[in-house]
Amino acid sequence: MRHSARWIFGLALGAVVGAGMAGAVKAEPEKLRVSIIPINDVTPLFSAIKQGYFAEEGLEIDTSPSAGGAVGIPGLVAGSFDIVYGNVVSMLLAAQQGIDIRVIAPGTKIEKIEDDSSAMVVRSDSGIATGKDLEGKNVGVNTRNNVIWLYARAWIKASGGDPDKVTYREVPHPQMEDALRQKQIDGGFMVIPYVALASAKPEFKAIAHPYSAVQLGVDVGEYLTTSKFLADRPQTAAKFLRALRRGIEWYNANRGTPPLLEIVSGFTRIDVGLLKQVKMSPSPMRVDPAQIETTMKLMIENKLLRGPIAVKPLIFEPAL
Amino acid sequence: MMPRQRSGGAVESLFAAPLRLARRLRGFLLVAALLALWEASARLGWVNSSNWPPVSGVALALVRGWTGGELLQLTASTLRRMASGYALGWAAGIALGSLLGINRWVRYAVKPIIEVIRPIPAPAIVPMLILFLGVDDLLKVVVVALACFFPVFLNTLAGIAGIDTVLLETARTFGIGRIKTLTSVILPAATPTIAAGMRIAIGIALVVTVISEMIAGSSGLGYYIVQMQYALRPEPMYAAIISLSATGYLINRAFVVLERWWIPWLGR
After folding, report:
1. Taking CB atoms and an 8 Å limit, are A77 and B131 in contact across chains?
2. pTM over the 0.80 mark
3. Per-residue pLDDT tens digits for A231-243
4. Cis bond leading into B188, ω under 30°?
5. What are the chain B neighbours of A81 within 8 Å (beta carbons)?
6. Which end of chain A is less crowded, N or C, counting CB atoms within 10 A of the terminal residue's CB?
7. What is the pLDDT of residues A10-29, one digit of tens each?
8. Do B98 and B16 have their domain in common?
């Protein structure tokens, strides 16, 4: 009798504690730490956070900005982040080095020529119009041996120049305009929002859009994770992708609208008035392995990669 | 002498107070002139750059940043990391410096390794350290500690090496144990040298904290400076830089005060 009473008491206690825990679990969303670069490219992620799409999937996104983007992949490897936003070149370089890396979701893509805002900018009076004209001159890139550098080289080659005859100088994006004006560089591969401000001035001129000129449809950036994360938490990965896609849809439908500019201004700290001058390109819904393979070939051509990498296995299947 | 004093004295007394004031103000005047030049260069377009704001805009950003609490919070978060790293660095520096200072064998074994690591600039190892320490505060604290360790360590070692042997022999004659000799004879005698190392380290600490926040931060003054640079908002960026410089100055002043209290016999 006493035994069964204890049993019943135990069960009741278990039920209460269990219910309490279940309640706690329900109230406590699953946390994901995402490393981002505070640039327009990650606006769909912030849109999805703002619209509550992640919360609806039971996810809480903790974004950790890295101004230069230098800590993304090392932080992923170290386990500080679950997901990082990174560019396609960094991803392929990491894959070649044997780093456990996977593409979990689409990021940035340039599908139409008119959506390509980034540009090779020169001084209007320089007379430079092609890659051939840049031979023997200095071209500003944010980082050597990375995506901007790669497409600057590819464009120089495509427009008749020898990329090896050009000197590439590292200039941070915000200082590109000053470096051009002070003739430290003769051309600068500029991205938004800086490119919009520079090319609005008569002293500068955008002569080409290297991304779309070299490879229309290029997948410039993606959300990255590890195969371990995909294997251990496939449901979470699927939830992340689903919520992000809703964010992408919202972003694409609201580009240039005041609520979206507010979101961009919130995480970039860029003035809303300034953002109005910037054209935002639509975001892709899926990752395109064929485009990544084209980038890979360019990297091999420019000696960034030793040999080909099987791209498709690097991509989380539902993201295709 | 009398006539000169009469004529000169009158002039002197007439101008003495303004001259003294002018002399005292000279430093401020130079700064004010430079600031005026800054303002003019931005307003009149002498410097044509969107990254060069007028100084009045920076002053406004400075006031807004401090009254709004943002700069206070950023400075506090930078100082917190700096203080943890600094404390860890000097404690390790004194501990290891003392150990190597009093034991020849440990010195032979450990010193070469330390000498190899010493020339590596702390920011250069950040990407490697991320793999072991992640990207959070621990990383920055360790980087700062590492940078602060060397000046304190080397000064401790030098301070101990420079101790008058008579002191040590006296301690030995009185039969004082090794630990007691260390705490009551060696360390007090080496204190001025150690304190000099600590003062060098505190300057390094702030710089390295900010650099590590710039590389791998998502908060603090270092991150904020880079964030504002990329956001094309040079006014708050310079406001943060000025706050940083003021913080560095105040830390140094505070250290001098503490040093006077700690080692009053230091020649002053």
Report:
1. yes
2. yes
3. 999 999 999 999 9
4. no
5. 135
6. N
7. 545 444 444 444 444 445 78
8. no
